[in-house]
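To assess whether ligand presence alters the predicted conformation, the chain was also submitted together with NAP. Input:
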Amino acid sequence: MYASVIRQSRYGAPEQAFGIEVVDTPQPGPNQVLVYVMAAGINYNNVWSALGAPLDVIAARQRRGATEDFHIGGSEGSGVVWAVGSRVRSVSVGDHVVLSGCMWDESAPDIRLGADPMTSATQVVWGYEENFGSFAQFALVDDYQCHPKPASLTWEAAAAFLLTGATAYRQLCGWPPNTVRPGDPVLIWGGGGGLGSMAIQIVSLLGGIPVAVVSSPERARYCIDLGARGAIDRREFDHWGPLPAFDDEEAMTRWIRGARAFGKQFWEIIGERRSPRVVLEHTGRDTIPTSMYLCDNAGMVVICGGTTGYDADVDLRFLWMRQKRLQGSHFANLQQCREVVALVESGKLAPCLSWCEPFESVGKAHQLMYNNEHPGGNMAVLVNAPEPGLTNLP
Ligand SMILES: NC(=O)c1ccc[n+]([C@@H]2O[C@H](COP(=O)([O-])OP(=O)(O)OC[C@H]3O[C@@H](n4cnc5c(N)ncnc54)[C@H](OP(=O)(O)O)[C@@H]3O)[C@@H](O)[C@H]2O)c1
């Protein structure tokens, strides 16, 4: 099969890291499904795969026993079931499916004892930690990763909403009692990005008040059109990155001034002096100090990534004295995935596909993302789909 492959010798800028090669088509095991990929969604995790850092995904897999010396990324996609393993009952050859991005061992002791599979010691991200993702003519998944494709969606729109949509959904709905309630103000970093665009809509659906952070007037407009109450342009502030040393009073005063001015804009947008009850984080190092400062008492900063770095400063005083919660969140379990698919199918949640190019553009797509030059919302590449706009097999 043709695949857009990363090799260790090409680690570096995404534009150069991916190369189209012919590799052996994988064969499904008893509980696995081989999917004829029509389109694939683009996500930030394969920016990291391309760079080979902070994790060399190929070496990490080889340490776990894998024999392949290449990586096929792509943690979501849409397609047609091509072959199923001997024990698969949930899908049949010919089904149109969208693919979710995490795998686990269903027989693992923690799962058998009732753990959310996303918290299982066996859980891995397909198309990142696990091989044979959607950037190839055929993808290899576990049967539970297949969800019915919303029939009215094009292959490319169906390929690109689930990873960001379900991740944002778990962040906003999955951590009681800090779930979004009607009237709750919510701060959303990167409101114009994949996660942000889905989060704005989900907060609105829950009756909350989404406020986006962006870096351009175009992205502000995009967020407001999606339902954000307003958008803060982060370029107006400069207090980003690590906290100043706590005994450097002057620097700390400057930092607090920046964080307060940012918070004032938040109040102005929502029209009252209320702090965000939930802060949707994924930006990490540059923004965590502000998120922790701004979050309401007993509120939650919920984080699923670290685009600007995973070494972030937390002023523990805000955490304990204001009894805030810093919660990690990672993709979504099957129930959360299905709820997001249903929201998209019913038309309540737009898939926000804003960019779609042919298969050859896998590297270009990740480079745009790495440079933060991509348009708002989600991105996809066509794989076996011959043209955009198709909802069925040609
Ligand atoms: N754990 C999981 O399951 C999971 C799932 C999905 C995504 N993620 C992670 O979440 C992150 C975002 O994913 P995405 O798909 O939304 O990516 P994306 O579409 O590239 O959006 C990220 C947004 O972050 C903002 N940003 C970039 N640099 C920033 C900075 N220095 N300070 C503040 N904001 C900044 C940008 O918005 P502006 O420049 O307009 O502010 C950009 O739109 C990635 O790190 C990804 O790996 C994790």
